[in-house]
Amino acid sequence: MLTLLLLRHAKSSWKDSDLDDHDRPLNKRGKHDAPRMGQLIRDEQLQPDLIVCSSAKRTRRTAELVAESSGYRGETRITGDVYEASGSQLLALIQSFPESAQRIMLIGHNPGLEELLERLTGEYRPLSTAALARLEIPSEKWSEINAETRAELQHLWQPRELE
């Protein structure tokens, strides 16, 4: 059994309209929510073996804040393959995850994360900013996961629920 944690980046700032989308930082709420989700990961003992994160500034900062507050000390792989990826592209990326990792956190964007969640579970669930979904996948190898694989959504945490 493999565990996939899907984390949408925390709330980003639209204050500077001249910034490229890739370079947008977190806003005040995002800087507040990301550490709270990290604490949740610590409390639920869900520290991943590996974090795979979009190259966008807001996802990298989300990863840093989550890792710090969760106590995560492992590797964080930053990749442009997650930025603007569709659900099917994210599924292909998952197939390349290292077999040595049993629990991986993927930090990315909508609509790709919602598409991936729906593809793996068979039902649509919205992911607000900083939302965390825990999926259990009935497979021993990431490379065996495909469009027919059905994962079980164990829990979906939205930051507003943690108030």
Q: Can you offer a commentary on this structure?
A:
By secondary structure, the protein is of the alpha/beta class. The protein has a single domain (2-12, 21-162), classed as Rossmann fold, CATH 3.40.50.1240. Helix content is 29%, strand content 21%. The protein has helices at 28-43, 57-70, 87-94, 112-121, and strands at 2-8, 50-54, 75-79, 103-108, 132-137, 152-157. It has a six-stranded mixed β-sheet, with helices on both faces. The mean pLDDT is 95.
Helix-strand blueprint:
Blueprint: E1 2-8, H1 28-43, E2 50-54, H2 57-70, E3 75-79, H3 87-94, E4 103-108, H4 112-121, E5 132-137, E6 152-157
Parallel strand pairs: 1-4, 2-3, 2-4
Antiparallel strand pairs: 1-5, 5-6
Helix pairs in contact: 1-2, 3-4
